[in-house]
Structure formats: C-alpha cells, structure tokens
C-alpha cells in the first residue's frame, strides 16, 4: 500500500472542500456561525488570494471565526485574520547564532488566527492543542515557572514590542497551526511572528518591519521561553519566500530575497519526521554555540564571524589542547558552511541546480561529521535522524540516483531529533515515502512548497 505523502493536512483539505464545493450554501458561500455573524467564504478566499496566500485555506479561518464567537460572545468591533508560515532551513546549519550566513525559505504550512482587539489589556488566546492563555499585556515581567509555555511566548513578544517603544494592547483570538511542534519547521518562531504581526496590525498600523518582528520573536524565545536560538527562523517566517540572510551585523542583518524554484527543475523538497523527541535536548543545542564561541574567544573574538578562517586553521594545535576537539570540529563546520551558503545562493541565482545539489550534500556531510548534531550524546537508543539519513542514502543507491548529483539529503534544522530534508526528482517522491514509511510511519514524509508571503494580518470583510 502506498504511504500517505503529506502536502497539506487532511483536515485542511476537508475544510476547504466544504467551503467551496458546488452547491455548498446554495452557491452563495456564506456560512452562518454560532452567533449568526456572516462569514463570506468567497470574499475571504479573494482576500487571501490578493495577499499571495492559499485561498483553499478559507475553511480553516471559518472554523476559527466560529470558535472565536463561541469563546467571546460579547465581542464587538472588526475581526482580523492573521497567518505566519513555518520555515525550512536550506543551508547554514547552526551558523546564525555566531553571526554567520543562512539560506532559508518560508513554507506552505502555517500558524493562523482569528482575532478581535479589546478595549482593555487582556490577551485571551485559545490555540488548538494547547492550554488556553489569558494574561495582562501590561504585566510584562517574566513569570517564574512560565518558561517553555505558550504564555511565555505571548508575554515575551508583547514585552519585546514595548521595550522598543511600540504600542501594545489586548486581544481575543483563536488559533491553530499546521506547523507541528518538533517537526523542524519552526513552530515556535511561526507562533512568535504571528503574535508580533497581530500586535503590529492592531496597534501599530502595520508599520513594524519583518526584521524587527523577527528580532522581537527571538527575544521572546531566548528570554521568556528560555530556549537558546539564533535569528534565522524568525526572519524566514516573517519575511516569506526564499531568503539569504547575513548576520554579520546581527542588529541589522542583510536579508535578500532569492528565487527557490525546485519544482521548475523537476525536484521536490521533502522533510521526513523521524518521530524523535526534543525533550531533554536543550543542553545539546546550547553546547553548539557555546563551543563555537569558546573557539572565537581563544582567538580574540566574541563569535566565529569575528575570526578569520586562516587564523583558526593556523592555530588548531593550540585550540585542540585548550578547548577540545569537538569545539574545533564545530568551528570547521562553521567556516565551511558559512562559505557554502554564499555558494548555494549563487547557484540558485544562476540556475545551476546540479551545483546546488552537490553543495546541499556537502552541507549534510559537514553537519553529521563535524557539527555532530545528528545523534544526541545523551541517548544511544534514539537516533532517528541517523537512521533516516542512512535509509535515504540506501534508497538513492537502490533506484540509481547519484547522491550529490541527482539528489541530496541532510539533517534539517537544529538536529539531534526530528526531521531530515531530502531533495529528489518529483517522480521518485512516492517511492521514497514508501521506503521510509515502514520505519517512521505512513505520514512521516511531507512535501514542502515555498510560500512567497511572510506574516500577514488583515481585517476580515464580513458579509
């Protein structure tokens, strides 16, 4: 039996079909919710399309608006819809936190919300699959015991906005997401950017740029959620499309749009969820930037971007003795990966897809061998990323695809658990998903498409 290849969750497809099939609601496409507030699906689909968003997702928004009416029956004023995509890292594995270069892209999976502003400072958020959040937008100090929760992200984003002098306020919202936690597609960054964009449109007339929203999201994740991360995830989610980002000046990163047209080359980008848990891996993630910064400090810098590669290679013997081999190996990865990002961007711009595939394979090799983020040191019994990479290489060999020429595979995102990323010919995707389904499950493979639009919020035009 052919495994299921996820392009969009079934629930999304069913909702979209129920909104748009011939004869639905006598072809008027007006849905009456629990408070008889009309939701004109046809007009909302047009609003989505006007903003470069997928109009077939209209059913997801209709569901959230109905839930919002049920949760807040006394609400008045306009309703807003908001969306922020997930992201896929294409190159620059663990380079952003040492002010390196990255290549990333927003994807067709996203976090969405139906929102109404409030005349008080209360934020009341009900997100599908998570505990409800209710907090005071004027109470912005980090709360003991709140780290790692949705409330911490919401409070942190609002605090980050306030610290920069932006206006903030209360709102009621219902939310859902197709960016599954632990999928390696940045569910937390997508949510942070979603909250930032809601505040941006409700209270700042949409004047806050995507880079500022991204920086605020990272602040929330680092300071309130208590998770170390770079800035790549939030920038990709906020900006949209393919983006090359240079963090040499982290306060003002250079963000360049890059056309990522894998489909035009007959290729599909697939992520495979190995089902591994990220629990207890914070120490593993934190050790990577710490190792890199230890090398930088020994060479007179703060982060590896401050260090000339030649100076590093000339002093490896001392660094091995003083810092240790793992840190040295991770620095080797940083310097090669940082240059590789620039080379991959050039390859995309020139349409040299074979060169891009070869560089993608090199990126995966460097992550596994030098960065060492495919297998967690704390667990020898759960190393799904390594197994998935091995099975992928076996599949490519079996079907006659040359790794690094016709196809490539690499660890995706932070690593240690979660997902891998594979680029291969479109006509081999079904066979590939089948090959991995017996080990990781029938829905473990997801075909990604690049979404051109970043975070968006807009007022719903009700019938």
Topology:
Layout: H1 10-20, E1 30-32, E2 38-40, H2 41-50, H3 58-71, E3 80-91, E4 101-117, E5 122-127, E6 133-136, H4 150-163, E7 171-177, H5 187-203, H6 210-224, H7 232-239, E8 242-246, E9 254-258, E10 267-273, H8 282-298, H9 309-314, H10 316-322, H11 325-350, H12 353-371, H13 384-398, E11 408-411, E12 419-425, H14 429-440, E13 445-448, E14 456-459
Parallel strand pairs: 5-7
Antiparallel strand pairs: 1-2, 3-4, 3-14, 4-7, 4-8, 5-6, 8-9, 10-12, 10-13, 11-12
Pick out its properties:
single chain; eight-stranded mixed β-sheet; Ribosomal Protein S5, domain 2; 463 residues; alpha+beta
The gist of it:
With 463 residues, the protein is α+β, with helices and mostly antiparallel strands. Helices cover 41% and strands 19% of the residues. The strands form three sheets. Strands 3, 4, 5, 6, 7, 8, 9 and 14 form an eight-stranded mixed sheet that branches. It has a four-stranded antiparallel sheet with strand order 11-12-10-13. A two-stranded antiparallel sheet has the order 1-2.
3D shape: globular
What class would the helix/strand composition place it in?
Answer: alpha+beta
Q: Low-confidence segments, ≥5 residues, pLDDT <50?
A: 8-36
Strand content: 15-25%
Indicate the CATH topology of the largest domain: Ribosomal Protein S5, domain 2
CATH architecture of the largest domain: 2-Layer Sandwich
CATH class of the largest domain: Alpha Beta
Query: How much is the average pLDDT?
Result: 89
What does it look like?
The chain is built from 14 helices and 14 strands. It is globular, with a radius of gyration of 22 Å. The protein folds into 2 domains: 10-260 and 455-459, Ribosomal Protein S5, domain 2 (2-Layer Sandwich); 263-448, Alpha-Beta Plaits, CATH 3.30.70. With 463 residues, it is α+β, with helices and mostly antiparallel strands. α4 packs across α5 and α5 crosses α7. It starts with 9 loop residues before the first helix and ends with a strand. The strands form 3 sheets. Strands 3, 4, 5, 6, 7, 8, 9 and 14 form an 8-stranded mixed β-sheet that branches. It has a 4-stranded antiparallel β-sheet with strand order 11-12-10-13.
């Amino acid at each position: 039996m052919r495994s299921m290849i996820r392009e969009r969750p079934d629930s999304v497809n069913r909702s979209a079909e129920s909104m748009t099939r011939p004869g639905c609601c006598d072809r008027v496409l007006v849905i009456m919710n629990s408070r008889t507030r009309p939701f004109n699906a046809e007009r909302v689909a047009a609003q989505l399309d006007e903003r470069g968003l997928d109009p077939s997702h209209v059913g997801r928004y209709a569901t959230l608006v109905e839930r919002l009416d049920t949760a807040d029956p006394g609400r008045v004023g306009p309703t807003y819809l908001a969306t922020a995509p997930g992201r896929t890292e294409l190159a620059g594995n663990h380079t952003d936190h040492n002010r390196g270069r990255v290549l990333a892209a927003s994807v067709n999976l996203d976090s969405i919300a139906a929102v109404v502003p409030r005349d008080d400072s209360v934020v009341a958020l009900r997100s599908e699959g998570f505990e409800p959040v209710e907090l005071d937008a004027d109470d912005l100090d980090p709360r003991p015991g709140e780290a790692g929760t949705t409330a911490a992200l919401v409070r942190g984003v609002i605090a980050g906005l306030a610290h920069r002098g932006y206006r903030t306020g209360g709102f009621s919202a219902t939310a859902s997401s197709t960016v599954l936690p632990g999928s390696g597609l940045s569910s937390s960054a997508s949510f942070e950017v979603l909250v930032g964009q809601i505040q941006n449109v409700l209270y700042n007339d949409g004047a806050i740029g995507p880079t500022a929203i991204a920086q605020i999201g990272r602040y929330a994740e680092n300071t309130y959620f208590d998770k170390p991360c770079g800035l790549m995830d939030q920038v990709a989610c906020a900006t949209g499309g393919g983006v090359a980002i240079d963090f040499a000046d982290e306060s003002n990163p250079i963000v360049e749009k890059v056309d990522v047209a894998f489909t035009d080359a007959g290729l599909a980008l697939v992520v495979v969820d190995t089902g591994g848990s990220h629990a207890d891996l914070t120490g593993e993630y934190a050790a990577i930037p710490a190792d890199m910064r230890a090398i930088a400090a020994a060479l007179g810098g703060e982060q590896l971007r401050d260090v000339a590669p030649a100076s590093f290679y000339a002093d490896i013997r001392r660094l091995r003795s003083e810092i240790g081999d793992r840190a040295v190996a991770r620095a080797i990865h940083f310097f090669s990966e940082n240059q590789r990002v620039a080379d991959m961007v050039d390859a995309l711009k020139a349409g040299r897809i074979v060169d891009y595939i070869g560089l993608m394979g090199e990126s995966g090799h460097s992550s596994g061998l030098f960065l060492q983020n495919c297998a967690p040191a704390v667990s020898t019994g759960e190393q799904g990323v390594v197994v998935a990479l091995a099975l992928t290489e076996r599949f490519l060999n079996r079907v006659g695809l040359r790794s690094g020429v016709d196809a490539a595979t690499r660890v995706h995102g932070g690593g240690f658990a979660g997902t891998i990323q594979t680029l291969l010919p479109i006509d081999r995707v079904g066979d590939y998903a089948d090959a991995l389904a017996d080990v990781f499950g029938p829905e473990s493979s997801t075909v990604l498409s690049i979404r051109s639009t970043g975070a968006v919020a807009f007022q719903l035009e009700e019938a």
